[in-house]
Amino acid sequence: MENADEILTEPIIVETVPAVQEYQTSFDTLINEKSAKDAEYTSIGDLASQLQSYGVKENTYSEVSWASLQTAYNALAGLIHNRSGQIASELAKQEANETLRVEFATNANDFSSFLKNQNDSIEGLSGEIQSQLDQIGRISSDVSGGKSQYDALVQLTHRLDASGVSDNPHTNLTIEGLKQQWDALNTLALKRQQVLEKELLSQSGTGLSSEAIAEFKECFKHFDKDEDNLLSRLELGACLKSLGEEVGDFKQEGGKLDQILRGMDGDGDGKVTFDEFASYMERVSVGSDTSDSIKQAFKIIANDKDYVTEADLNSVLTRDKVEFILKHIQPYPGVANAFDYNTFTEKTLYG
C-alpha cells in the first residue's frame, strides 16, 4: 500500500498523449495488483476477527493494527478513484493539444506552400512590362488575401501557448518564421512592382525622378480605396488635391476635374491608371512647356475640341491670362466665337 500510495500521488507531468498512456499503463498494473491483494486483505480481516474472539489483540506481534490497515485500504480506494479521473482529464487535455498541433502543422504547411508558390510566381514573371505589372497586381492581391490564413495561425499559436504546448513534432514551422516569410514576400512584390513601374515609365519617356515616381505611387495607392489599381473620378480629385493641384469643387460634375479626367483617361472608361496619372503629373510637375504639352493642356480646357472658346478659358484661367490669349490667338475657321489654339501654340508661343 505504501508503494501504491506513492504511485497514485505522483504528479502527472506530461506533454504528449503517449506519455499519458504510460501513466495509464502503470495505473492499470497497480489496479491488477490490488485485485490480487483483495483476497489477502480479506484473509487478514478474518484472522483479526478470530483473534478478537479469543480476546487476543491482533497486533501483538505486529506494528499494524487491523483498524489502521482498514483505514489505509479504504484511503487507497479513494486515491485510485482520484487517479482515474486525473488520468482521464490529462488524456483529454493532451488529445486536445495534439489536435491543435496537427491543425497548426497542416495550416502552417499550407500557408508556407502558398508563400513559396507566390514567391516563385514573382521570380518567374516574364513578358511585356504591363503584363508583368498586371500579374504582380494579382499576386499582391492574393498575398494580401493570405492575411486571414496568417491570422488563423496566430490564433492557433495563442491557444497552443495557453495550453502550455512548447513543441510540435508535426512541423518545424513557427509563427515567427512564417511572419518573416510573409513580410519578405510582400517586400519582394513591392520592389518588383516599383522596378516594373519605373521601366514602364522609362519606356514612355517620362522625365520623372525615381523619388517623384515613388511619391506619386504612394499617393495613388492611398486614394485607390477599392484597391483596383485605378482611380475613379472622386478618388482622382482627392489625390490631385492632396498633391496641391487646383481641381475646383470636384464634387460637382462638369468642372475642371472633369476636364483633367478627360485629358488623362485614354480609353474613356472614366478611371485612371497609374501610367496615365504619372504622365499627367509629369506634365504639371516637371513644368514641361513643349508645343505638344501646351496643345494637350488646351485640349483638356477645350473638352477635346480642336478649338477653344472664351468661356472655356475663363473656366480655368485667370482673367489676365485669358486676355493675353485672346489678344494673340486667331479665330477658328467655321465656328463662331471659337479660337485656334493649335496655331496659337505653334506660331505665337513657338514661332
Shape: rod-shaped
Order of helices and strands: HHHHHHHHHHHEHHEEH
- Just name the CATH architecture of the largest domain: Up-down Bundle
Helix content: over 70%
Structural class: mainly alpha
Average pLDDT confidence is 85
Q: Find the count of extended strands (DSSP E, 2+ residues).
A: 3
The portion of residues forming beta strands comes to under 5%
Gyration radius from CA atoms, angstroms: 42 Å
The low-confidence runs, each spanning 5 or more residues with pLDDT under 50, are: none
Enter the CATH topology name of the largest domain: Methane Monooxygenase Hydroxylase, Chain G, domain 1
CATH class of the largest domain: Mainly Alpha
Write the layout of secondary structure elements.
Blueprint lengths: L1 H8 L7 H37 L12 H58 L5 H17 L1 H16 L12 H29 L6 H14 L9 H10 L13 H9 L9 H12 L5 H11 L6 E2 H7 L2 H10 L1 E2 L6 E3 H9 L2
Antiparallel strand pairs: 1-3, 2-3
